[in-house]
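Working notes for the structural subgroup meeting. M.R. asked for a predicted model of this chain before we commit to crystallization trials. I am recording the input and output together here so anyone reviewing the notebook later can reproduce the run.

Input as submitted:
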Amino acid sequence: MHDVFCNSPPRAWAEINLAALKQNLGVARAASGCAVMAVVKAGAYGHGLEEVTKALATENIAFFGVANVGEARRIREAGVATRLYLLGATWAGEREEIVACDWTPCLSSLDEAAHFNRLAMASNKRLAVHLAVDTGMGRGGFLQDHLPEMMAALERMPHLEIEGIGSHLPAADEDDAFTRGQIARFRAILDELGGPERFKWRHLLNSAGLLAHDHGVCNLARPGLMLYGVSPMPGYQDKLSTVMTLKSRVTLVRTLPAGHGVSYGRQFVTTRPTRVATIGIGYGDGYPRHLSGKGADVCIHGRRCAILGRVTMDQIMVDVTRADDVMEGDEVEMFGPNIPVAEIAQKADTIAWDVLTGITPRVIRCY
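Returned structure, recorded in token form:
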């Protein structure tokens, strides 16, 4: 029976523009002047890990940055050969696979390094690794005061090739002075450890960092959000192209009388006869429930229509009183070129990263 009805249209889907993705990569490359580690963790920020990495694999990417070995495995199983970099600390049980597959870990402790060294020795190989240094993020990495002695110990581990060094900027889009201080600390660390030339790869800059801060200390940039068409720095948004457009359809149109409640809790009650369109998407698809009552809109036929009442699990209701041509089956833009995802995030009191990665698997991705 499924085969008979395979052409039934989806109720919610995300259109992913891979040409726009590549254009945004070009913006990141031009802004940083560096080689690029494309950050594709969390399913390429909800855009689809396999399809995004296959699209970018032809673009001379130095690394793909992933969160864990499961993501690394999926990229390899998709036939993508680009080098893979694990952005955080690893579990002991993951490390044998990392060594066997020649994925590149970052190191935050001597115990972690010693384990990798033993595993690489057992496999008769040298494993390329990067040092993570904590310049202010507080999430992982060696602290600056301990680095010289740590570096001496690491250099006595013959099966590790200390290929790179990196840190992370926690406030590049919020605290300019702190970020400048971080970059200065990173530069001082490089000098303390023998100079920039000691490391093949030096990386610190995320999207906000490479758009708004000094690049001279780095030769590898790590763009994430900006690849997907969202700038963490408002002044740069017009340089980027929308990659994901989240869409749904009108499932029902009715006119409700004055005094009629809409959605759970009667948070919204009509004050006049109101033409209401029901749309087949909700928080079960990842559309934020926190948009309820926050003045959010959708776009139908190029016009904004206000969401009424609470977002429910599978449906939302919008006011189409002034859009009398709206009918069942019409496409609805939830966010995209006309409703920026950053606007949705702001009204939901969250961030664009959260909205994009929160789009659930039942939303079909169309490339």
